[in-house]
From TrEMBL:
Coiled coil: none
KW Oxidoreductase (keyword) present: yes
Residue ranges of domain Prolyl 4-hydroxylase alpha subunit in the record: 67-264
Protein name: Prolyl 4-hydroxylase alpha subunit domain-containing protein
Cofactor field: L-ascorbate
Species the sequence originates in: Opisthorchis viverrini (Southeast Asian liver fluke)
């Protein structure tokens, strides 16, 4: 197949009839053994993927103009031209790297200067069509289009990565990459490997039948092979339902440069619609009551605050377990009616807020101490990798007496975020109808129905367990998540098609750095200089986007002991950006001596608690915005920040604009 019109050719040892026959036989065989021959390596598991070292060489016939004196000169010319290409920075939930224009744009350019600067790449693209396509067809038996190839260059700089995906797009039949990394590239210290994921149980390994439509869900669960990049090495594979792979993070300071693309042809079949392997179960809010006398002289007894209804003098003879958790865990500032009103106004105008120092300091410290001592075996990996990669604490909501059982303090916080009492607190903080017993809901009823002014708590009742479920928000099962270097979630894990309006709640527990602020204003808005924020360059921040839009709606950086609340609607999704190797999580509980910390050798981790509250059915069917409450208006009379929602619509955030424009916003109109 040598073509004298090009100054380069496929390495002759890969182009002999005997090699082609041996390779094709191994490629089409069901034998799971790897094929190794003259610098070629064909992996059969987890899917067929071939690598050819020293792929291109100077034209051996010497009949072409501009022949290269050596392979070294040839590859240097390729690298030089590739680096002169115009590159654009690419960044989303799945990847961060720089990508060039397609080389076809250079071959079509009328600019003599552009053509002269990229002559090698233009020739190489033509060579792929005329020489490489016939060669690949002989090796694989795959029918390829003779005049179509996607051909671009990518540069992976420090911390750049391409996460797990399968490359399956219409008409992509063979994916290829030609590496131009330095000769001494060390994958141990510089990373950048092509990692291949298995979709099969270890006990049932077989060569995937890519030509048949899968009849069972196919999801990647384990990296079983890695190909380190080598200068002048070509790698190719056929995209299929099984071809999950990633480009591992670039750990060094040198660029990982490559030329890559796809040859087109009839695609392999894939599942009609991939099932979500980890459906999010919704749970009913819990309500359990015990008798507990209120004794003013007893510091452990619970003084009713604005959560119950500060307008009434109460002498309760019973108090619910969940309310006890509210008073024990949540900082008093967030149960104060005046502060709740301020927070509501901010939330209504922005549809998001981050509440600093949300948990009482003593309980937060107790929680961090417990998390630091949890055994590694209590954490399980949450995947699959094409959707997410983090650890979750198992069995928190179930009875477990084993050594790996979640500590009681962790279970307490779990119960709090599942409770009806928490629905009331969140309703009063955000102005969203999550529970009918919130202050705003009660004042709304009193305003509209004067005969029903008596509070539910005046009769010694708390959030009633008899409340119809249609009037209660449905929370997802609270998840304690552990984040380490390499953790992430992808948009594929978000239910973008969900038609529900929801309040997404994330309590960042620890590992994100200290917060040293006692100022109430800084606590509320998180903008004080003394707040030590987690740098976005490390990843780990939560990003919200709207379906079909490129710009971010919101990006939230995690802070220790801060509760982030975001009101999201249909077509709005979020992801947690990949945590790269620059990240330096802080010790969860520095006061513990090293020998008392978790005994595993894993790197420092970050922890959060994630819950999503889906609006009650009755709210979804009601009008989008309630009428104002005169009593709340009196409470905040004269506040210099007094503003009515809707007075300045142009200043609303994208989340609120989308909610209002759709006519589905369920935010209560704050009377201030």
């Amino acid at each position: 197949m040598t073509d004298g019109t090009y100054p380069f050719e496929i390495n002759l040892r890969y182009n002999t009839p005997s090699f082609v026959d041996l390779f094709r036989s191994a490629y089409q065989s069901n034998d799971i053994s790897d094929f190794l021959q003259d610098g070629c390596k064909l992996l059969k598991l987890p899917f067929s993927c071939a690598a050819f070292e020293n792929f291109l060489q100077p034209n051996s016939s010497g009949s072409s103009d501009g022949c290269f004196a050596s392979e070294y000169e040839l590859i240097n010319r390729a690298e030089s031209e590739a680096r002169r290409l115009p590159f654009e920075r690419k960044c989303n939930d799945m990847f961060t790297f720089s990508q060039s224009v397609d080389v076809v744009n250079l071959s079509c350019s009328r600019s003599t200067e552009a053509e002269s600067q990229s002559l090698f790449l233009v020739q190489l693209r033509s060579f792929l069509l005329s020489n490489v396509i016939p060669w690949l067809e002989q090796l694989t038996g795959a029918p390829l289009e003779k005049e179509v190839v996607d051909f671009t260059s990518s540069i992976y700089s420090t911390n750049d990565v391409l996460l797990c995906h399968d490359d399956q797009l219409e008409k992509r039949r063979i994916a290829f990459v030609w590496y131009l990394v330095p000769d001494d590239w060390d994958e141990q210290t510089e990373g950048g490997c092509l990692d291949l994921f298995s979709c099969q149980p270890d006990q049932q390994l077989h060569v995937p039948v890519v030509a048949e439509k899968p009849t069972v869900p196919i999801n990647p669960w384990k990296i079983t092979a890695s190909l380190p990049p080598r200068r002048n090495m070509l790698v190719f594979f056929e995209p299929s339902a099984y071809s999950f792979h990633q480009v591992a993070e670039n750990l060094g300071v040198r660029d990982r440069l490559s030329l890559h693309g796809w040859f087109h042809g009839p695609p392999h079949p894939r599942p009609t619609d991939r099932d979500h392997p980890t459906p999010i179960p919704l749970v009913s809010p819990v309500h359990v009551e015990i008798l507990r006398p209120y004794t003013p002289s007893d510091p452990k007894s619970l003084q009713p605050t604005s959560f119950c209804n500060a307008k009434h003098t109460l002498s309760l003879t019973s108090i619910s377990v969940q309310e006890e958790l509210v008073y024990r865990w949540i900082s008093p500032i967030y149960l104060d009616m005046k502060q709740q009103s301020k927070i509501r106004r901010r939330f209504i105008k922005s549809s998001e807020i981050q509440l600093m120092n949300f948990l009482r300091a003593d309980e937060w410290s107790r929680l961090c101490h417990a998390l630091a001592l949890i055994k590694p075996s209590a954490w399980i990996r949450c995947g699959p990798f094409n959707r997410k990669n983090y650890d979750v604490l198992r069995g928190v909501g179930k009875f477990d007496s084993s050594e790996d059982a979640a500590p009681d303090v962790v279970r307490e916080l779990y119960r709090l975020f599942r409770s009806e009492a928490m629905l009331v607190v969140l309703s009063d903080l955000c102005g969203i109808r999550l529970h009918p017993d919130s202050l705003l809901q009660q004042s709304q009823k009193e305003f509209n129905e004067p005969s029903a002014k008596r509070s539910h708590l005046e009769n010694g009742e708390s959030c009633s367990s008899s409340t119809p479920e249609s009037e209660l928000a449905r929370p997802s099962d609270p998840q304690f998540r552990r984040w380490t270097i390499g953790s992430y979630t992808l948009l594929a894990d978000s239910d973008v098609l969900d038609t529900s309006w929801r309040l997404e709640s994330t309590l960042h527990l620890g590992g994100y750095g200290p917060v040293e602020s006692d100022d109430d204003t800084e606590q509320l808005d998180g903008k004080g200089d003394s707040v030590n924020r987690w740098p976005t360059s490390w990843g780990g921040h939560t990003v919200y986007i709207a379906d079909g839009e490129k710009e971010e709606l919101l990006s939230v950086s995690p802070i220790n002991n801060a509760l982030t609340l975001v009101y999201a609607g249909p077509g709005t999704a979020s992801f947690v950006k990949y945590i790269n190797h620059s990240a330096r999580p802080s010790p969860l509980f520095p006061q513990l001596s090293n020998n008392k910390q978790s005994t595993d050798d894993s790197p420092p981790s970050c922890y959060d608690l994630s819950v999503t509250y889906y609006e009650p059915v009755s709210t979804s069917e009601s009008s989008s915005v309630s009428e104002s409450s005169s009593e709340d208006a009196e409470d905040d009379e004269g506040d210099e920040e007094e503003e009515g929602r809707g007075e300045e619509p142009d200043e609303r955030t994208p989340l609120e604009k989308r909610a209002v424009e759709s006519g589905c916003s369920q935010l209560l109109e704050d009377p201030n």
